[in-house]
Amino acid sequence: MTKLARYLEHTLLKPEATVDDIINLCTEAKEHSLGGVCVNPCYVALARHLLAGTGVKVVTVAGFPLGATFAEVKELEAMMAAENHADEIDMVMNLAAFKTGDYQAVEAEIRRVVAAGAPCAVKVIIEACLLSDEEKIKACRLIIAAGAKFVKTSTGFAKSGATASDVRLLKKECAGTGVGVKAAGGIRDAAAVREMLEAGADRIGTSAGARIAMEDV
Fold it and tell me: Is the CATH number of domain 5-215 3.20.20.70?
């Protein structure tokens, strides 16, 4: 295992990803002892089968990539992820409700997903590039209050991804709460991973996990 491998969640969330693509993703994760793989919900059972006994976590998503579906849909996705033996769930926060100022609804939705997905740890994607610093801080407070385990910077589908400055801000706000920070979006090499870790990231989401592990020698 390389120094960076354990932080990396090897990610493939493209809508056209095939079974063979997921098999390759999981094979690479095993070969390089990566921290996890992140796959769409329909591939959770396959990834669990392929990675059984390896220590590589299976991560999936809920409300991805927009976060604008019904709370009940995210709740069902979380429940089914847990039933298919995912380890963690990355849910997209309802950005529309958040931007509207309906913070009660945002927190309530996160609580529902946390409860439905138990015992999976839940990460909440805030799409940081669409938020002001004040909004990022508010989002962290809602996530902490709702019982999620991580705040995640980005889906990778928006106009930009993770930045070191965002990671520092989120880490500072979550310090001492037990909530970690996952940096994701646009992280494609070992130098970028190190920058995010130095800024305070606890996890890294990247589609280049295997390449980064090979680069980190």
Answer: yes
